[in-house]
Amino acid sequence: MAVFDGYGRFLRVWKQMRWEKLAEEEFFAKNILRCVLWCA
């Protein structure tokens, strides 16, 4: 069960990292889009 527990912990950390990365990419995409619309 120790391996399974470690895998579950790894999965949680990986999901959190992915979620933060996705949020960061979405933030940059919105800023770029806003800049393009503002400058155009």
The DSSP helix count reads 1
Low-confidence stretches: none
The total strand number stands at: 0
| Strand percent estimate | under 5%
What is the helix/strand order?
Answer: H
Descriptors:
40 residues; mainly alpha; 1 helix
What does this structure look like?
The protein has about 40 residues and is mainly alpha-helical. It has one domain. It is built from one helix and no strands. It is rod-shaped and about 55 Å long.
List the topology elements.
Elements: H1 2-39
Short description:
The protein is mainly α and 40 residues long.
